[in-house]
Amino acid sequence: MEKKNIDWANLGFGYITTENRFVANYDGKAWDEGKITTDSNVVISECAGVLQYAQTCFEGMKAYTTEDGRVVTFRPDLNAQRMEDSCKRLEMPVFPQDKFVEAVVETVKANLEYVPPYGSGATLYIRPYMFASSPVIGVKPADQYQFRIFVTPVGPYFKGGVKPLTIRTCDFDRAAPHGTGHIKAGLNYAMSLHAIVDAHNNGFDENMYLDPATRTKVEETGGANFIFVTKDNKVVTPKSSSILPSITRRSLMTVAKDYLGLEVEEREVLLSEVKDFAECGLCGTAAVISPVGKIVTKDGEICLPSGMEKMGPITQKLYDTLTGIQMGRIEAPEGWIKEIK
Ligand code: PLP
Ligand code: COI
Questions:
Q1: Whole-model pTM above 0.70?
Q2: Which of 62, 86, 273, 283 fits as disulfide partner to 183, beta carbons 3.0 to 4.6 Å?
Q3: Cβ pair 291, 306 in contact under 8 A
């Protein structure tokens, strides 16, 4: 199989249309079998639930070419579980988890020419999503839904690859207590757009959202969870019921403990203690682990001791081990790697 003629090494995090995608429809009672189609356009009612009341959710995952030339994905069962959680919270029909994983495999198989080669620095981003396709005008769940998966080859989420980022604490809230922060609802991202545009206009790469009730605790960014490293090499991550349970972050905590022998803690993290950490990183499928060098708060700047030139040493080890597992250089824990080809 010939790879597409793409300048893999210089890809950013953007959308490139590929030939094939997966589509399944829910008619109000059941999902159909679903199939691969070449049509990248979606045609729905002007009054579709997704257009009027944002009834939509999505997932994000990646396929990798391993050192020995296989194509794999990373823990797709956890994306299937999280999409089920999102659907239930948004009154959408669940696409069965085993079918979700099968559809991911089928979609990647149908787009193998677009899976970036090993060592190119790029990966294949996989975007499963579901939306209400039938009309609703009173505020209620729609009857019909569509589930789709497209793929697109991507490079680093943040320009500059792994250069430390400068972020700020945000005046806007991302998620209310008992709201939808813990699921991957499109609405969480719509409401973050103003905050991210404002952050970029002011020279920041991302926003650090704080807990909306007290604005004293660290939550997450618009698209990634935080990990911190203490001066005595403990890996700490914020615990909150209003952040997205990142699969990357959960995996990194296992890597820290079981592969690197580090102590790990998932607990509330006060903004006031961030100045005492040695390293900070943003973790997610898109972000992988992107180091943070500086955090600007209302009470002044926090410059992480790891600096603005490169990742801190523990962050680097976490990054190397996780990507080593994903690219097949390091043996994965049981069940983490789903082979596609
Ligand atoms: N937090 C938010 C708000 C996200 O959008 C994402 C991306 O999916 C993450 C965290 C990271 O989650 P994961 O590691 O499962 O990709
Ligand atoms: C991901 O990491 O998969 C995300 O969804 C983050 C962002 C692109 C929304």
A1: yes
A2: 86
A3: yes
Contact between 114 and 2 (Cβ < 8 Å): no
pLDDT digit string, tens, across residues 147-195? 999 999 999 999 877 899 999 999 999 999 999 999 999 999 999 999 9
What is the pLDDT, as a whole number, of residue 208? Answer: 98
CA atoms within 13 A on the CB side of 62: 24
Asked if residue 78 belongs to a domain, the reply is yes
Question: What's the number of domains the chain is made of?
Answer: 2
CA distance 145 to 147: 7
CB-CB contact of 85 with 128 (8 Å):
no
Return the number of other C-beta atoms located less than 10 Å from residue 299's C-beta.
10
Same domain, 116 and 182: no
Which residue CA neighbors atom 7 of ligand 2 most closely? 223
Residue 337 lies in a domain: no
**AA identity, residue 142:** A
Range of the domain at 141: 8-154
248 lines ligand 1 (CB under 6 A): yes
Active site residue 184: yes
The tokens for 155 are 């490079």
Kindly identify the ligand whose nearest atom is closest to the C-alpha of 123: 2
Quote the tokens at residue 265: 């803690």
Q: What is the rounded distance in angstroms from the CA atom of residue 332 to the CA atom of residue 251?
A: 11
Looking at residue 135, the DSSP 8-state letter turns out to be B
Whether 55 and 196 share a structural domain: no
Residue 68, both tokens: 């020995």
Residue 79 lies in a domain: yes
Give all strands (DSSP E) within 69-209, no chain letters: 71-74, 123-132, 145-154, 165-169, 206-208
Which atom of ligand 2 lies closest to the CA of 60? 3
We report the CATH number of the domain holding residue 248 as: 3.20.10.10
